[in-house]
Amino acid sequence: MATNYDKLSDRFIDFINAQKIFFVGTAPSGDDDVHIAPKGYETLKIVDHTNLVYLDYYGSGNDTAKDLAGNNKITLMWCSFDREPLLLRAFGQGVTVSKGMEDFNNLMKQYFDSYPREIVRQLFKIKITRVMTSCGDGVPLMKFEGEREALHLNSLKKFSGK
Question: What digits encode the pLDDT tens for the residues 64-74?
Answer without folding.
Answer: 999 999 999 99
